Structures are given as C-alpha cells and as structure tokens.
Amino acid sequence: VIISSVQRQARHSFFWQFVFHTYTTAFTLVNGNGTPKAKEYSLQQKQLLLGLGAISYSACVGALPLAFMNRYTLKNSLMHLVVRKLLPAPLLGLTSAFTVAMVRSPEFDNGIEVMDRNGKVIGVSKKAGEKAVMETALSRAVLFGTTFSLPEVLMYCVQRARFVKNPRALGPVRIFVIMSVLAGMLPVSFSMFPQCGEIKRADLEPEILSSTEETVFFYNRGI
C-alpha cells in the first residue's frame, strides 16, 4: 500500500499494484467460505484463472491515471490534482472489491452452507453466497479506499499548517500517516459485517425452507 501510493511512473505503479493485488487475492482465496460443495469445481483451474485475470485488470486500471498523465504531459494543476490525488483512492477501492468478487465468484454459482441457530447445516444457498461475497467486497473497498484517500487529506493539512518545516521530512511523515490509517482501518473493515452473517427466511431459496421452520439462518462470511 505504501509503495503503491508514492509511485509517479505508470510502469512502476503497475508492478507494485500487481504485487499488491496478488497478495490480497491470495488472502481472499485462503479466507473464503469453506463450504464442502465448493470442492466440486476445480479450484486450480477456475479460481486461479479468475484471480490472475482480476489481478492483471486491477493493476492496469490502477496505473491508468499515471499512464494518461505521463502520456499527455498534463500541465493543468487541476488535472494533476484529479489524476494524482483524487482518482487513485476510489480506483484502488473498486479494484480491491472487484478482485474479491471475481475470486469468490464460484460461491455465486455453487452456493454456501447455511445453518440454523444450533449450527446444524440445513442446505446450500446461492443467495447466501452472494450476500457473503458482496459484504466482503464492500469491506475491502472501504479498507483500501480510505487508506489511500485519508492520508492525502491529512498530509494536505500538515503541509498547509506547516507542521513539518523540512521538506525532506515529508516522506517519512507520509509513510507514518499511511501506516497509522491502515492500522486503524483494519479492525474497522473486519468489523463492518459479522463473521457469522445472518440471512432472513424470505431471502433464501424455497427448496431450503421446506425442511425447517426457522426464521433466521447463519453463514460463514469469510474475510
């Protein structure tokens, strides 16, 4: 996150964002829902292929603003502000959510286990899988989108108030601010939605409901 945020060349930005999304994709694969039915599709052939495509696409999108700016040598200060300061944060948030959705997309197709209050598995639901993936994608977007955007605001305030008088000290201060925001946002992101998610009876498939009278069901959201 830190290295990606300080890049000024599109080629370097692409490389470091490729590394970043590779790590987050691997984290998503390891910490997804562990429904046994998910073993019926080929993890190596499907999820890894989707993950590689998502990583490459996300790295290209993340480096696109710098490529555009370097290509056309923009001199307008407003365009510099938009390209270098405003665009990277929402792009990183969106691409982070995109990689989660792509890598865990088999949960849309195969579904995940849903349980009653006693932990008894009552069926496999595609709607629960969709809800779990969307919640995880949203939390990931908030985590990295905020980590990229908030430090820019804080650094602007620091420079405007002249808290740091030595220009050489701005680099270490920026790194400290990014690390602090990331450390603060991690628990916020993980606690946005409960690990054991809830889904109402009306939101599940009819074939699951025929075997129980429960009104609320639970599922493992993943991280």
Automatic annotation (TrEMBL):
<dbReference type="GO" id="GO:0015075">
    <property type="term" value="F:monoatomic ion transmembrane transporter activity"/>
</dbReference>
<feature type="transmembrane region" description="Helical">
    <location>
        <begin position="48"/>
        <end position="69"/>
    </location>
</feature>
<feature type="transmembrane region" description="Helical">
    <location>
        <begin position="81"/>
        <end position="103"/>
    </location>
</feature>
<dbReference type="GO" id="GO:0006865">
    <property type="term" value="P:amino acid transport"/>
</dbReference>
<keyword id="KW-1133">Transmembrane helix</keyword>
<comment type="similarity">
    <text>Belongs to the sideroflexin family.</text>
</comment>
<keyword id="KW-0496">Mitochondrion</keyword>
<feature type="transmembrane region" description="Helical">
    <location>
        <begin position="170"/>
        <end position="193"/>
    </location>
</feature>
<dbReference type="GO" id="GO:0005743">
    <property type="term" value="C:mitochondrial inner membrane"/>
</dbReference>
<dbReference type="Pfam" id="PF03820">
    <property type="entry name" value="SFXNs"/>
</dbReference>
<keyword id="KW-0813">Transport</keyword>
<feature type="transmembrane region" description="Helical">
    <location>
        <begin position="137"/>
        <end position="158"/>
    </location>
</feature>
<dbReference type="GO" id="GO:1990542">
    <property type="term" value="P:mitochondrial transmembrane transport"/>
</dbReference>
<keyword id="KW-0029">Amino-acid transport</keyword>
<keyword id="KW-0472">Membrane</keyword>
<keyword id="KW-0812">Transmembrane</keyword>
<protein>
    <submittedName>
        <fullName>SFXN4 protein</fullName>
    </submittedName>
</protein>
<dbReference type="InterPro" id="IPR004686">
    <property type="entry name" value="Mtc"/>
</dbReference>
